[in-house]
């Protein structure tokens, strides 16, 4: 494939490790870790950090495709509801349709992808703005989860099912391996493929991207489908971790994921963002919550801090970027 | 054309909806067995057959008998009056005991996933004991078992987990006791041959689901002429609950003689709906609620009685149970435990400790409570 | 809508007016049509008592949607309004119980609402932080702050004079309905006929073009958020004064309901299009649907799914209608 001529305002001209916002954020993160580790000696232990990795996987898996979506200037608010729907269908199809469990898992992943596909389809063909479409599906998918489950939970899975959610592989939580693989694949895709470059092009100037001959609609369809699929994967990990299904699973995930991606430097206006930034954002929020809790800060004060951190770090990062001549 | 499509879609969904409309058990949706009590007045709690101990045990807990311990209390959520009250009871007990410190911390919304993360953090930080009220009995089990495996004592209250995930569970009242108290209270106020509706939080809240199932079983047995009309969900929002209750009143008109409120949000909201509709005295409101929230309605004679237990006592008892466990005074197989000013509490169902019969708040005794 | 077609519609105000008017008309038809359909199934739905209850119980959402619509028209979004309303309602109730003069208890939420939202507007406009980030952060700050300060305590000994929502003007018109109608009409008139109001559409539609004709985007955004805070304050008042007890918590999902009302009402997130009349009608429709679903015995498990389908259908229909009008 020939090189795609990018518009002048493209941000992706520097090597990835020089991206300003992410480096700044990583620095803040390291400082925060040191302070919190100093305040509580159980914080910086391998045991604790690995455990935090385990707990952060569900949001992390979804934050990866959400980075893609936000880079294109879109958004997906329905991911939390998709998690709930996939979780319910995993249990429901196993118990009520008598699917063998592996088939039930595959089925729920398929449903997740289909849910994302529907979002993508309406967004690209009918041209409903992503915010609106995904607000509607947020309600619809949650409603389907509630309707199908009729408030019943499905429990009692075989032992092997709990592996991904609760066990370790070579000393590292199993789901963390999954997350790491997903991070590497996403990072490579965003950074080194035409697909990734197309995302930035769409985010920077969609009309220009279209006129350049880029398959804008196809790419958008892919990322929304991916978003739904990862929500399904996240649901699988979640059910495995908590050993039951509930129709209220995943409520609020969308805000956690968006906070992660935005904190990581992706601009909500599109055209800017990296997987590395999202990972730092993910680590930041999770470790902050954990560190604060271990230091004795209670739940209500913690969310105030997280809210403030979100605003302040975006402020710091964007003003630094401006001073360096970006944006 | 689009409108036609929309109308077709709407009708289809409505049809699907109504197909599922007839719900058994009034939406006490958990398929667990029910155990209705005997009809008629008398002890609200029948003595259940003794069961062998079925709780979990910590692995190699450090011996802290008689020594100071630090506990954490992780309720379903923080920031609501009910768990403020349980927390208050815990602080009272801690003060009396002298060698216990309890801290209450938890999620700001009743989400099991958040609650698990809180408990996980406290396991890491190395507390001596965890008190909890679970958002989901099965989902909370893995993290509690992890706590037990690290030698941390685990005692539950208000909302149970699976028995093997905790050592003891302090039960405010048996589910069937609540079911009986609620149905009997309503039947007393409105009579036998009347219709009623239920306002609950969500169908997936375990305690509410069990209470409704037990209410159904007890009514079938002892008040078969009471006619159930509908159960609606109203989340935990006062105004939403009010709107739902008002809708019920408007929908059924004269057919509705009573409303059950299943949570401390649903009950005052239902009372408000009845007040606004000027139906005080004509539509009875019976429910579970904290006395503070019900003061205006009980004082106006709109609500005659509020069923609950004393959550302050519940927290108090849970702390004493934890202390007894750590001191080795409460071992598997015990039949009772000393709980400070509450006296001796009985062990039921293998590993549950019963607070006592439900407490009925009325106009006379309400002023003595502040939660 | 592409930039080109929007520019065309903008240039011909009558066309724009027609495009807007039909979403409102559609909603009005839906409100009336639904009432008739449900009434046929269960006549009790059409009782004056019920219809007025639906309006009274949900007027606060419509009022909040007026402010939210302005925010969305200007090209921004706000997800902190639910938490703010919880805080303002608690503030108002606490002042009332502490014996403050009733006028103060009613004014305080308005003032604080304007200040808090205005502050967010300043951060968004002058510090250039995207609205979603600021309001997401503010949502947590307000919620955590409220719980820290009040612990969710019930406010119960409210003086009778506090209950603004119970007042009936001329013994006929309940205050919530009155405020809803007045807020909608005043806001609609102002947005269409005053320079500052039209500036909101300009800024939302094409900020660069607006700047070139001398409209300050920054000042407009701050103004919009301040107004949004004002309407949120009124909504909080209605919310707080309706019941005899106030639960000092954040109403769950309120911001989502308000945004849905604006969006279903025809306000476009792309900015520059939509009216508050649409959002008020949509708020009424949403409330009516919630009541209707109970009346026609839709299984409670499927209620949210039905609502989701309705929102989806409305939204798709709206976009298709717009495209047909604009593309013609």
Going by CATH, the architecture of chain C would be: Orthogonal Bundle
Secondary-structure element order of chain B, N to C: HEHEHEHEEHEHEHEHEHEHEEEE
Reported CATH architecture of the largest domain in chain B: 3-Layer(aba) Sandwich
Strand tally of chain B is 14
Task: Tell me the helix content of chain B.
Answer: 25-40%
> How many helices of chain C in DSSP terms?
13
The fraction of residues in strands of chain C falls at under 5%
User: What amount of the residues of chain B lies in strands?
Assistant: 15-25%
Instruction: Give, in spatial order, the strands making up the sheet with the most strands of chain C.
Output: 1-4
End-to-end gap of chain B: 57 Å
Number of helices of chain B: 10
Overall description:
- The complex is a heterotrimer of chains A (327), B (371) and C (328).
- With 327 residues, chain A is mostly helical.
- Chain A has one domain.
- Chain A is built from 13 helices and two strands.
- Chain A has a two-stranded antiparallel sheet with strand order 1-2.
- In chain A, a hairpin with a 2-residue loop joins strand 1 and strand 2 (172-173).
- Chain B has ten helices and 14 strands.
- Chain B is elongated.
- Chain C has one domain: ABC transporter involved in vitamin B12 uptake, BtuC (Orthogonal Bundle).
- Chain C is 74% helix and 2% strand.
- Chain C has helices spanning 3-11, 13-41, 48-73, 81-97, 102-126, 131-150, 175-193, 195-205, 207-212, 217-241, 254-264, 276-295, 303-327; strands spanning 154-155, 168-169, 173-174, 246-247.
- In chain C, strands 1-4 form a two-stranded antiparallel sheet. Chain C has a two-stranded antiparallel ribbon with strand order 2-3.
- The longest helix of chain C has 29 residues, at 13-41.
- The radius of gyration of chain C is 20 Å and the shape is globular.
- Chains in contact: A-B, A-C, B-C.
- At the B-C interface, helix 1, strand 7, helix 7, helix 8 and helix 9 of B face helix 3, helix 6, strand 4, helix 12 and helix 13 of C.
Gist of the model:
The complex is a heterotrimer of chains A (327), B (371) and C (328). With 371 residues, chain B is an alpha/beta fold.
Keywords summarizing the entry:
heterotrimer, A: 327 residues, 2 strands, C: mainly alpha, ABC transporter involved in vitamin B12 uptake, BtuC, two-stranded antiparallel ribbon, 4 strands, 2% strand
């Amino acid at each position: 494939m020939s090189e795609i001529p990018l518009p002048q305002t493209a941000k992706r001209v520097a090597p990835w490790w020089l991206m300003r916002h992410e480096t700044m954020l990583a620095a803040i993160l390291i400082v925060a870790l040191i302070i919190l580790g100093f305040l509580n000696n159980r914080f910086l232990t391998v045991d604790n950090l690995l455990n935090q990795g385990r707990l952060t996987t569900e949001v992390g898996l979804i934050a990866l495709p959400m980075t893609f979506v936000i880079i294109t200037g879109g958004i997906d608010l329905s991911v939390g509801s998709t998690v709930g729907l996939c979780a319910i269908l995993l249990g429901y199809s196993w118990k009520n349709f008598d699917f063998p469990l592996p088939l039930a898992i595959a089925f729920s992943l398929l449903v997740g992808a289909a849910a994302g596909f529907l979002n993508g389809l309406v967004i690209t063909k009918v041209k409903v703005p992503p915010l609106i479409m995904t607000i509607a599906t947020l309600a619809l998918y949650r409603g389907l989860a509630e309707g199908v489950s009729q408030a019943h939970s499905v429990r009692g899975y075989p032992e092997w099912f709990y592996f991904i959610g609760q066990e370790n592989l070579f000393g590292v939580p199993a789901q963390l391996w999954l997350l790491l693989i997903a991070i590497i694949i996403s990072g490579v895709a965003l950074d080194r493929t035409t697909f990734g470059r197309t995302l930035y092009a769409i985010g920077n100037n969609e009309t220009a991207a279209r006129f350049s001959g880029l398959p804008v609609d196809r790419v958008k369809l892919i990322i929304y489908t991916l978003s739904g699929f990862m929500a399904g994967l996240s649901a699988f990990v979640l059910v495995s971790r908590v050993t039951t299904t509930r129709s209220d699973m995943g409520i609020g995930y969308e805000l956690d994921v968006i906070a992660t991606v935005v904190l990581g430097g992706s601009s909500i206006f599109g055209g800017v963002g990296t997987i590395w930034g999202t990972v730092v954002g993910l680590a930041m929020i999770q470790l902050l919550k954990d560190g604060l809790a271990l230091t004795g800060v209670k739940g209500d004060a913690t969310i105030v801090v997280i809210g403030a951190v979100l605003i302040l770090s975006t402020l710091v990062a964007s003003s630094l970027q401006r001073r360096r001549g970006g944006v | 054309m689009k409108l036609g499509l929309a109308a077709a879609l709407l009708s289809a969904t409505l049809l699907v909806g109504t197909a599922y409309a007839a719900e058994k058990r009034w939406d006490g949706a958990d398929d667990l067995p029910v155990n209705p009590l005997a009809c008629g007045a008398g002890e609200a709690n029948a003595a259940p057959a003794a069961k062998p101990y079925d709780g979990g045990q910590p692995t190699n807990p450090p011996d802290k008998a008689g020594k100071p311990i630090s506990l954490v209390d992780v309720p379903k959520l923080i920031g609501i009056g009910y768990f403020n009250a349980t927390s208050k009871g815990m602080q009272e007990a801690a003060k009396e005991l002298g060698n216990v410190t309890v801290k209450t911390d938890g999620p700001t919304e009743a989400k099991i996933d958040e609650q698990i993360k809180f408990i996980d953090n406290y396991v890491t930080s190395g507390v001596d004991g965890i008190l909890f009220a679970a958002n989901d009995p099965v989902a909370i089990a893995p993290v509690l078992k992890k706590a037990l495996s690290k030698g941390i004592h685990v005692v539950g209250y208000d909302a149970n987990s699976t028995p093997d995930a905790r050592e003891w569970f302090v039960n405010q009242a048996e589910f069937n006791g609540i079911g009986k108290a609620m149905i009997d209270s309503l039947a007393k106020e409105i009579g036998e041959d009347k219709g009623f509706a239920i306002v609950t939080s969500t169908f997936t809240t375990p305690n509410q689901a069990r209470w409704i199932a037990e209410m159904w079983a007890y009514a079938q047995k002892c008040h078969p002429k009471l006619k159930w009309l509908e159960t609606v969900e109203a989340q935990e929002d006062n105004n939403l609950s009010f709107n739902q209750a008002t809708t019920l009143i408007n929908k059924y008109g004269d057919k509705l003689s009573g409303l059950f409120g299943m949570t401390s949000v649903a009950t005052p909201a239902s009372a408000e709906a009845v007040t606004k509709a000027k139906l005080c005295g004509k539509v009875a409101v019976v429910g579970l609620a904290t006395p503070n929230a019900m003061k205006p309605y009980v004082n106006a004679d709109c609500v005659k009685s509020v069923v609950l237990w004393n959550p302050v006592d519940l927290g108090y008892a849970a702390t004493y149970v934890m202390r007894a466990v750590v001191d080795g005074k409460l071992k598997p197989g015990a039949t009772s435990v000393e709980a400070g000013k509450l006296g001796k509490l009985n062990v039921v169902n293998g590993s549950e400790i019963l607070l006592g019969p439900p407490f009925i708040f009325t106009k006379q005794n309400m002023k003595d409570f502040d939660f | 809508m592409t930039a080109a077609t929007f520019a065309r519609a903008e240039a011909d105000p009558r066309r724009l007016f027609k495009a807007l008017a039909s979403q409102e008309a559609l909603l009005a038809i839906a409100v009336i049509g639904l009432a008739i359909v449900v009434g046929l199934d269960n006549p009790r739905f059409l009782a004056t008592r019920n219809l007025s209850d639906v309006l009274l119980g949900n007027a606060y959402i419509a009022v909040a949607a007026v402010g939210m619509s302005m925010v969305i028209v200007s090209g921004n979004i706000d997800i902190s309004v639910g938490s703010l309303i919880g805080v303002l309602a608690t503030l108002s109730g606490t002042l009332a119980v502490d014996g403050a003069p009733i006028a103060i208890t009613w004014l305080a939420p308005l003032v604080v609402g304007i200040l808090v939202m205005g502050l967010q507007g300043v951060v968004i406009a002058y510090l250039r932080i995207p609205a979603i980030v600021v309001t997401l952060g503010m949502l947590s700050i307000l919620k955590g702050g409220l719980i820290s300060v009040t612990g969710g305590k019930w406010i119960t000994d409210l003086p009778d004079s506090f209950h603004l929502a119970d007042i009936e003007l001329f013994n006929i018109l309940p205050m919530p309905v009155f405020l809803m109608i007045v807020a909608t009409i005043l806001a609609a008139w102002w947005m269409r006929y005053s320079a500052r109001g039209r500036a909101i559409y300009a800024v939302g539609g094409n900020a660069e073009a607006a700047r070139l004709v001398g409209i300050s985007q920054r000042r407009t955004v701050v103004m919009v958020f301040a107004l949004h805070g004002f309407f949120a304050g009124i909504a909080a008042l209605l919310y707080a004064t309706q019941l005899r007890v106030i639960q000092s918590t954040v109403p769950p999902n309120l911001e989502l309901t308000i945004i849905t009302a604006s969006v279903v009402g025809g306000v476009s997130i792309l900015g520059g299009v939509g009216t508050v009349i649409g959002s008020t009608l949509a708020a009424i429709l949403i409330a009516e649907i919630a009541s209707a679903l109970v009346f026609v015995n839709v299984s409670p498990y499927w209620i949210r799914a039905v609502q989701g389908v309705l929102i989806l259908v409305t939204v798709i229909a709206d976009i298709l209608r717009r495209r047909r009008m604009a593309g013609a």
